[in-house]
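Ticket 4471: requesting a sanity check on a complex prediction with hexanoyl-coenzyme A. Repro inputs:
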Amino acid sequence: MDDAVILSRTEGRVGVITLNRPKQLNALNDALMDALGIALLAFDVDPAIGAIVITGNDKAFAAGADIAVMADWTYMDVFQSDFITRNWETIRRVRKPVIAAVAGFAMGGGCELALSCDIIVAAESAQFALPEIKLAVLPGAGGTQRLPRAIGKAKAMDMCLSARTLSAEEADRYGLVSRVVASDQLTTETMALAQRIAGYSLPALMAIKESVNRAWESSLTEGILFERRELHARFASADAHEGMHAFMEKRKPSFSHR
Ligand code: HXC
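Returned structure tokens:
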């Protein structure tokens, strides 16, 4: 499996997917995005998994969509194959928390893939950019939509129009990433975070993810209503009663993920 475009493994209740085209800085071609989608959905339906990590290597999370493949595509090619929508958007169907562990380059589609995750943990070495303008295309894997929602119009326009690269520290300050860690601690810190999350009640995690995502897509009134319904639904779960009783009894909760 050495030439596999992704590597997939589990550690406790965490599923880890490693992007694996190091010679191309993990440039994202169809084979990789197909494999990533399949791996994500497999972890999503596996009851033994509570959280998923997507990572790359020390040099690159991913340097973007594969330019070598795209260079001669025509409009009809991308329209008929439903480029991006067909496989890149599989991640939107994942209901469990997905964490991007980013070291090195997160450029173009690589940055957009990270933005599609729920949490981004950045190594100090991480660099974020949407440099598609240099190729006379655009950040078409959600970048023009997710980036302004994440960091605001002013910073997003600057990144998209000038191809400005952000350091991990800047990305943290602007709210593009969730936290920055020492480069040699990226795996340790991300796995500790993922294991912590995966230890909580899975249906509660899913309800929270769904509710926070609603904040992006609805008015405050609609979002609050959605959140309230999710809250009320927690009282139909065994885990919510277990969590509250465990607190009262000063013991660790034992979640059944029901
Ligand atoms: C294909 C890529 C690639 C990419 C790097 N490589 N990025 N191949 N697609 N996106 C390849 C290089 O061609 C090279 O192959 C090898 O990986 C190492 O890259 P170098 O450039 O030699 O490394 P370095 O000098 O360290 O520079 C790193 C870099 C640079 C700054 C990240 O590679 C770069 O600018 N890459 C392109 C970034 C980019 O424009 N991304 C956006 C793509 S468009 P060889 O064979 O020469 O060793 C996109 C759109 C998505 O993502 C939305 C849909 C349209």
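Notes from triage: The chain has a mean pLDDT of 97. Leaving this open until the requester confirms.
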